[in-house]
Write a sequence for this structure.
């Protein structure tokens, strides 16, 4: 029989506990207090006390602590391990918890599962799977947690292997096991497997569907477009004694259009908006708002107000939120007046929605005034209220007003949250004020506030954008040391930073680190690496990374194709660019103006004007307007063929459309006329460029001067020098024609 391999943390653990068995100083009072609480059976109180002890920075070493506490509990030493594992797990000091787990007698199932859940919450799936082999004996809960996590990480086959192992060990599956299978298969897009799990649940002894089971299966049916079966399942659910909840209605109504959701609400929730009908009605109206039909939702609400019971606050707030998101603030405030007229008092949620709407509309001063008047309505602002203002001022780079808002927040007795500081750090970083962001961040730490992942990510992204990947890595180490789990966003910032520095190989290796952390790289990760290869001129390697992304089950985005098509065009690989665009359309992503412009440019520059014009016509048929870049590409193509009549026609159309020619547009014409030795028109264009405050290309002007002098037109050459001298002070026209 093969021995179970030791997990990494066991191999790296310090020496056994006997090394701490030397003569001890008198135990600290806190340890004596902890042992007394544990001996008296007050585990919860001991856990609270131990967390206050362990939350100091840095936390005390786990193994001496375990040894000292075990000695104080000679008859029940396992309680010491249970307490420390639970405390370290709650504090997200998971490596400390793993050291205690591997250096103690078998902990209780409760503390083992606390550690297992903490590892899974932190995304450390590999460590959690290794821990399973050390839990004796594993229970249905052990397997249920891991099966859910494997589905979440896109590993359905491994999840099923674990389910088979559960059956082989004789551990009866529970309703929660089948729920994990149904939900997992729904998440991975396998409705047939989800239906098999549902059938197995119905047949399993001792199991019966619960509300979670019905909701998960309802999601499967709705996603598969089986509306009739979904409606039948709701009826079956009610017959089994389960009342549909808000999540049930969100699944049912989310699968159809807003109008259809309202029809279903009338069928299932029915008629009025009062009482139990509030949440279903709110979800149905939210569906309309999500489709950009907030005005329709408002009209429906007004019909209900005229016809029946007054809907509750949640219904009004849903419509107000929809109106605010669409920027129709006057309609939102009018709905608040109707709400108050019907005796429904606006809540903090209502005011926060209005404040957010005003900020999104750029009306931040009005949002400030609204916050000041909230208290007159008997509603006190909370952290979200102030954070919305801080966010708005940070986006506008009005950082003094950000800090003033934080001061008002504290004066109102509202404690700033990590989100408050996150908005400030993020805003400062985006405006390139990284040193100030660092000072603020360190002040936050000094004041005893542990920034969350969002705040760390903002600072790490700021370092990476400025090219200081080393500082970003140090912040990542600090983040992990404080027990804040990095996210995919954290690693994506590092990958992007490495790629910007040209260290694409190291960025690609970071993908392995992402997976080691139990996270899944996303398409943004791969896009950064593709961009890195393309910047280095290695399109083929970029295409290989695209295949890796698709192999990982990721769908390329419009950004993915933009990067690759632009690179193919830069390298003159017209066929490759066309094939990528065809693939893009095949997976349901429409070509946009940028894509058409790239294709028109590469075809025009390679002399295929028929294809370039066909693409221009295709743009027009799809209602995509040509811009300056479109016409410049056509001008360049015709000018390269020395067909200046067509080039001038494209140039004239550009102006007729109200577009402004760029230096590149003029440059193409100047080069064309220069090659034809039609210097008069070329000089006119240079003069026009200068009048329009554009800088002519030094090379093109140099060639014109050489041609004019060669033709003996010295006065015109001197005139041209006078025209461009402010733009190109060192121009002399001494080059030779190649």
């Amino acid at each position: 029989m093969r021995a179970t391999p030791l997990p990494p943390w066991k191999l790296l653990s310090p020496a056994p506990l006997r090394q701490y068995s030397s003569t001890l100083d008198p135990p600290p009072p806190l340890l004596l207090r902890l042992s007394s609480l544990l001996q008296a059976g007050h585990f919860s109180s001991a856990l609270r006390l131990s967390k206050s002890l362990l939350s100091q920075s840095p936390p005390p070493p786990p193994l001496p602590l375990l040894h000292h506490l075990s000695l104080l509990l000679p008859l029940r030493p396992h309680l010491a391990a249970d307490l420390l594992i639970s405390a370290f797990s709650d504090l997200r000091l998971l490596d400390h918890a793993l050291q205690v787990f591997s250096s103690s007698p078998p902990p209780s199932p409760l503390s083992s599962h606390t550690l297992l859940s903490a590892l899974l919450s932190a995304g450390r799936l590999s460590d959690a799977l290794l821990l399973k082999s050390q839990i004796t004996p594993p229970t249905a809960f052990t397997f249920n947690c891991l099966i859910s996590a494997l589905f979440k990480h896109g590993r359905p086959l491994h999840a099923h292997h674990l389910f088979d192992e559960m059956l082989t060990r004789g551990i009866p599956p529970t309703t929660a096991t089948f729920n994990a299978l149904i939900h997992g298969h729904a998440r991975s897009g396998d409705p047939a497997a989800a239906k098999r799990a549902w059938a197995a649940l119905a047949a399993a002894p001792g199991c019966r569907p619960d509300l979670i089971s019905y909701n998960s299966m309802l999601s499967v049916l709705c996603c598969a477009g089986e509306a009739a079966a979904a409606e039948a399942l709701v009826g079956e659910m009610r017959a089994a004694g389960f009342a549909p909840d808000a999540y049930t209605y969100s699944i049912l109504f989310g699968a159809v259009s807003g109008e259809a959701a309202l029809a279903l609400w009338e069928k299932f929730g029915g008629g009025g908006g009062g009482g139990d009908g509030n949440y279903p009605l709110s979800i149905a109206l939210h569906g309309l708002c999500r489709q950009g039909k907030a005005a329709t939702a408002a009209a429906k609400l007004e019909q209900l107000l005229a016809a029946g019971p007054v809907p509750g606050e949640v219904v009004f707030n849903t419509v107000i939120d929809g109106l605010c998101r669409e920027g129709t603030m006057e309609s939102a405030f009018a709905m608040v007046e109707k709400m108050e007229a019907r005796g429904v008092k606006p809540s903090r949620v209502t005011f926060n929605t209005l404040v957010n709407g005003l900020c999104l509309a750029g009306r931040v001063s009005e949002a400030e005034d609204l916050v000041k008047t909230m208290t007159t309505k008997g509603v006190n602002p909370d952290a979200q209220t102030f954070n919305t203002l801080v966010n708005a001022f940070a986006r506008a780079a009005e950082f003094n007003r950000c800090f003033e808002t934080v001061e008002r927040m504290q004066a109102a007795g509202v404690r700033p949250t990590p989100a408050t500081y996150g908005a400030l750090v993020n805003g400062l970083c985006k405006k390139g004020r990284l040193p100030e962001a660092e000072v603020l961040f360190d002040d936050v730490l000094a004041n005893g506030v542990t920034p969350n992942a969002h705040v760390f990510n903002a600072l790490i992204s700021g370092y990476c954008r400025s090219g200081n990947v080393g500082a970003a890595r140090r912040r990542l180490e600090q983040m992990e040391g404080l027990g804040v789990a990095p996210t995919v966003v954290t690693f994506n910032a590092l990958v992007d930073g490495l790629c910007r520095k040209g260290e694409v190989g190291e960025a690609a290796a970071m993908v392995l680190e992402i997976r080691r952390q139990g996270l899944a790289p996303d398409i943004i990760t791969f896009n950064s690496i593709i961009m890195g290869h393309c910047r280095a001129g290695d399109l083929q390697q970029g295409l290989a990374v695209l295949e890796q992304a698709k192999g990982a089950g990721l769908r390329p985005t419009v950004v993915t194709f933009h990067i690759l098509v632009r690179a193919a065009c830069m390298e003159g690989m017209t066929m490759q660019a066309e094939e990528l665009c065809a693939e893009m359309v095949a997976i349901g992503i429409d070509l946009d103006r940028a894509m058409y412009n790239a294709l028109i440019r590469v075809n025009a520059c390679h002399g295929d004007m028929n294809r370039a014009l066909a693409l221009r016509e295709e743009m027009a048929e799809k209602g995509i307007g040509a811009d300056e870049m479109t016409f410049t590409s056509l001008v360049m193509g015709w000018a390269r063929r020395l067909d200046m009549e067509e080039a001038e026609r494209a140039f004239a159309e550009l102006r007729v459309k109200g577009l402004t020619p760029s230096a590149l547009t003029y440059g193409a014409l100047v080069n064309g006329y220069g090659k034809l030795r039609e210097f008069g028109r070329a000089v006119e264009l240079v003069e026009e460029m200068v009048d329009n405050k554009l800088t002519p290309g030094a090379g093109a002007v140099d060639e014109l001067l050489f041609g004019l002098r060669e033709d003996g037109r010295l006065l015109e050459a001197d005139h041209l020098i006078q025209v461009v001298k402010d733009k190109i002070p060192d121009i002399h026209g001494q080059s030779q024609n190649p």
Residues 4 and 470 are 39 Å apart (CA to CA). The chain is about 70% helix and 0% strand. Confidence is low (pLDDT under 50) at residues 1-26, 271-275, 733-738.
